[in-house]
Amino acid sequence: MIFQNAIWQFSEYDKNAVESHSKHFGCDPIVSKLLLERGIEEETAVKRFLSPQIKDLYDPFLMSDMQEAVERIRVAMDAHESIWIYGDYDVDGITSISILTRCFEFLGVSVSYYIPDRQDEGYGISNTGLDAIKASGGRLVITVDCGITAVAESVYAKEIGLDLIITDHHEPQENLPEAIAVVNPKLGEYPFRMLAGCGVAFKLAQALTGENFERLIPNIIDIAALGTIADIVPLVDENRILAYHGLKQMQQSKNPGIRALIAEAGLKGKTVDAGHIGFVIAPRINATGRIGNPRISVTLLLEKEERRALEIAAELTEINAERQSREREIMEEAERYIDAHIDLAKERVLLVVGENWHTGIIGIVASKLSDKFSRPSVVLNRENGILKGSARSIDGISIFEVLSHFKGLFDKFGGHEQAAGLTLPESNFEAFKSGLRAYGLSNIPEYMLIGHYRVSGQLKPNMVTHQLVESIDALKPFGMGNPKPQFVFENLTLDDYKRIGKQQNHLKMIVSDGGRVYDAIAFNRGDSVQFLRRGDRIHLLFNLELNQFMGVETLQFLVKGLTKDRLPMPEGIKNRAANAIYTYLMTCSYKENEGAFDSKFTMVPSFDIIFSAMAFKPLAIYSMEALEAFKDYVLNANILRYTLHFNTINPMEQRPGYLDVVFMPLQTAEDSWYRWEKDQNEHLAVQHIPKREDLVYVYKRCDCMGETLVTMSEKLRMDPVKVLFCMDLFEETALFKKEIRNGRYWLTRLPKPEKKLDLGQNAAYAGLLTKWHIEA
Hints:
The chain has 776 residues and is α/β, with parallel strands linked by helices. A hairpin with a 2-residue loop joins strand 8 and strand 9.
């Protein structure tokens, strides 16, 4: 645990290598560092990255079973067999269907497509879908963005006389489906394994059209860019080529559907970038697969008439608005479920269950929960004894790997590192829940659940220029695998600040580096004004952008993080610190700890000595005052390489090169610890152990239903450790019934005892006073 709400992760790099790279290619050192971090060192690689070319696409026949797939499709074309494309209902699946349909159209072949009903059939190939295709006269089925796990369904397809070609990009499992061909970049030795489903469809189109592929490209590459960016695959290698040229094609798209989407999103005349795709355009298409009919979106991308395309795009906007409304409702219910049923201190993976939740929306909710609570999330909808849902994760934790440990409990399961889908009988829920909790506590350290911001570089005065921004823009499009650079500028002076926006929920700051003044905008951080003062020394993490306003172009910081001293102690740390003090006082005694204060321990006058030491020793802190001082020190110096423990060092949370800070340690090894303390034991005990008048005061005023320890102590205006002691004593003497759920306390007042109690005479309380040499 740390005081910061997110880690600013500074990457280590070779300064000499950066200087050499920068000099050789004539680019800014920051840009060279960004290229080197992405593994782009050689001249050819630099040119391919900065100037992606269609000619650099790999030979599609390097992909597994591509030759077999093309040969079977050509046989079907020559024999005029009925060809069906079977696709998923998300943006990747919809764009995949559209790409192949346009490819066959280009080849003069009419094809049909099938998209499963999300509610009734769920993700992937279903026997219902195969029956429908067979009944319509289908002979050859080509899957896109699905099918890699459809082992049983592939057998069924064969039984009913359907030939099957699988094209997919999801993780292959132990057994592959029986098919004419299984085309997947993750099988075999294909040079790039991270294509989206639409990227695999694009490669199949490349293989089918051969020498005529260049003529087809303008008709499909903008669709491929849309699906690739929306599916959040790494925008490197072939994905970068597709996204780069597809975004360029969108500026003069030949596709009426793409043009209509751009117009409907209010982007006409603007340069469409990856952010617009991810946050404005793709959600409209996804909405039809979540709560509408995804065929509408395919129809839009295949539409040839401008007016009709605009009508469909407007319909997508209405469906998306409805999706947003339902999403808000489910999100609110999910958060109430977490508040009532989940202990965040113990649940490293969120498992949330609801009823009447639209299965097309819970994937978005899972993603939002992961972002908010910084941990993997599984969201399930209960219906007729079946739990069906979606899972999402955070950087560094593969949800596919996590859930694979429990696949024996699932009826259906598939996905990849950041997202997965699953179905299980309700009878397996408790086993899944307990197994997931145990797995999280044993395999996911708490430090992995802290948000991480990757820092691309540190800026100093005179480094921020328009030329730097233009050089950085040469790395676009940004996305997964090629993140938008984030910079840290330390020791800025806060000249002015104010709330802005209709809801006054954004923060605008004016900061200076001693010679130059900058505008800085922090969205949804308006509440931070209560912790700011003019003249504060602050450190900012931000994206560097050009802001256009009334024809004037200025540099602007788009703030992602802010730190400074005198920020409030996080409530989670306050709660744990109070419990640590309580545990210390209940476990130890004054006599036992006299040795903790003798000269054998290193007394340190400041934290500078600790952080500049050659070898870290654990640091013991024995008071809230010292913990506050340590917090202000690390925030003021923007130090991140430390871990805060309570009472004992947790080996699972230890990391090489990180200082272990232990608040209220129960035991210390004399010669191998630092101790920073300004209070004496007697004062510590007197400060936190309640007197008789405290017990009476709390008993009369304590009315707690669902409050945290911190909020309760604030309400009572009393030290939280004293409140803990009072609650335990009241429970022991049957004055209150106490329940704790998710760090919140519920206290129910019990009937008054017939005989008046003298709490001061309670044996446990009296023993506590005695062992700490305190008079009642």
